[in-house]
Amino acid sequence: RKEVEQDPGPFNVPEGATVAFNCTYSNSASQSFFWYRQDCRKEPKLLMSVYSSGNEDGRFTAQLNRASQYISLLIRDSKLSDSATYLCVVNPSGFNKFYFGSGTKLNVKP
Amino acid sequence: DAGVIQSPRHEVTEMGQEVTLRCKPISGHDYLFWYRQTMMRGLELLIYFNNNVPIDDSGMPEDRFSAKMPNASFSTLKIQPSEPRDSAVYFCASLEGDRGLTYQPQHFGDGTRLSIL
After folding, report:
1. Taking 80 as the threshold, does the pLDDT of residue A85 lie above it?
2. Residues of B with CB below 8 A from A45's CB?
3. Which of residues 5-44 of A touch B (CB under 8 A)?
4. Which DSSP string corresponds to chain A?
5. What φ, ψ does residue A3 adopt, rounded to 5°?
6. Hey, are the CB atoms on A32 and B101 less than 8 Å from each other?
7. What secondary structure letter does DSSP report for B9?
8. What distance in Å separates residue A10's CA from the closest CA in chain B?
């Protein structure tokens, strides 16, 4: 089983829609979680860290569900510029290593 | 603030040649990571350093790959001899690490697009 799994998509949504992605992780002792955004042929860029209590940054909300071992990313009022691949990243406790998901592709259409 | 700086941005070379990729981490960051990304395999961790010391090189594909970090502000990833299957985007990332790896994100450079003909 992979350490981190994501639905590759693509998720095709119209502008203004709300879209959510989940990312499951296998190590129940994982402590750190992040969402990155990667545009085509560019480097991954940190979108937001995911805290136990959940966190929000503008149109973006990240949640952690420890019981079911997944993190989620919610994007409200999608913009064309949100089109990208979204990578989740997990750092299992006691492991000096980060595990990247394979990414979920989002296409926001006019 | 300067981010992670990688060079070259693009490299095209013939198989069998030596390739050297360079990375300057963000000043003050204690961890440096080298990744490779392809369509087929996604983002793969090759090796990472903590305070210039290699900690985990289990992702280095074979002996043709080597990485060094002679000081806190410079690292190289070398492929010798290069093969067409090494064609990929190679990213370097750094992390501050004042609390270890936990809770702190990595910051990526722009990457080097490597094509081996």
Report:
1. yes
2. 108
3. 31-32, 34, 41-44
4. --SEEE----EEEETT--EEEEEEES-TTEEEEEEEEE-TTS--EEEEE--TT-EEETTEEEEEETTTTEEEEEE-S--GGG-EEEEEEEEETT----EE---EEEEEE-
5. -65, -40
6. yes
7. S
8. 15
Number of residues assigned to chain A: 110
The rounded percent of chain A whose pLDDT value lies above 90 is: 76
pLDDT tens for each residue of A27-56: 888 888 999 999 998 999 999 999 888 899
Contact A102/B at CB under 8 A: yes
CB B95 within 8 A of CB B104: yes
The strand pairing partners of B7, in sequence order, are B22
pLDDT band, very low/low/confident/very high, at A95 (cuts 50, 70, 90)? low
A24 to chain B, minimum CA–CA distance in Å?
Answer: 17
